[in-house]
């Protein structure tokens, strides 16, 4: 792109330069509000994904049809490598909450797999760090010091 020019052929200065540079489209403007992308939802129904959760596209993603552009972009980014929720938010230029809702929708549709760093107990489905016996053991160990 060239610099804006004045009437005498030199570079434009002042208001004319600002007007000319503002008129040049540098990026496509977002025309859809984030709440419209998620259908008005601010949280995913099943879980709140951490920023560092990794998203992996599954083979079923290839045949997924009728997806909105934002979900297709997520699948495109996650198709060849693991990508975190934070990275998807930056790539798509969408708020983190919106990306969390979209990724949860894709995971429920079985087209992506989400890998989190929170270990889950096999028997209860809850984090083992939250069990009462573990907390009591930690408290006893601290008291013994």
Lay out the secondary structure.
Blueprint lengths: L13 H10 L10 H4 L16 E4 L11 H10 L4 E2 H8 L3 H13 L3 E4 L16 H13 L1
Antiparallel strand pairs: 1-2, 1-3
Helix pairs in contact: 4-5
Written overview of the protein:
α4 (85-92) packs across α5 (96-108). The model is unreliable at 16-27 (pLDDT under 50). The chain has 145 residues and is mainly α. The longest helix is centred in the last third of the chain and has 13 residues, at 96-108. The chain starts with 13 loop residues before the first helix and ends with a helix. The chain has helices at residues 14-23, 34-37, 69-78, 85-92, 96-108, 132-144; strands at residues 54-57, 83-84, 112-115.
Largest sheet: 3 strands, antiparallel
Bin the strand percentage: 5-15%
Question: How are the strands ordered across the major sheet?
Answer: 2-1-3
Q: Ends: how far apart?
A: 68 Å
What string gives the helices and strands in order? HHEHEHHEH
What is the residue-mean pLDDT, rounded to a whole number? Answer: 74
What structural class do the secondary elements suggest?
mainly alpha
* Total E-strand runs: 3
Which value, in Å, is the CA radius of gyration?
24 Å
What is the overall number of helices? 6
Shape: elongated
> Which blocks of ≥5 consecutive residues have pLDDT under 50?
16-27
Fraction in helix: 40-55%
């Amino acid at each position: 792109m060239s610099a804006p020019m004045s009437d005498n052929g030199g570079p434009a200065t002042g208001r004319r330069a600002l007007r000319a540079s503002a008129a040049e489209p540098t990026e496509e403007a977002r025309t859809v509000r984030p709440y419209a992308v998620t259908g008005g939802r601010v949280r995913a129904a099943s879980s709140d994904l951490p920023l560092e959760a990794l998203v992996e596209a599954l083979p079923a993603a290839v045949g997924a049809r009728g997806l909105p552009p934002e979900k297709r972009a997520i699948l495109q980014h996650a198709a060849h490598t693991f990508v975190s929720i934070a990275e998807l938010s930056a790539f798509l230029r969408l708020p983190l909450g919106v990306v969390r809702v979209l990724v949860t929708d894709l995971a429920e549709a079985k087209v992506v797999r989400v890998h989190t760093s929170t270990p889950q107990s096999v028997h209860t489905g809850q984090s083992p760090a939250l069990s009462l016996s573990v907390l009591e053991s930690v408290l006893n160990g601290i008291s013994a010091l």
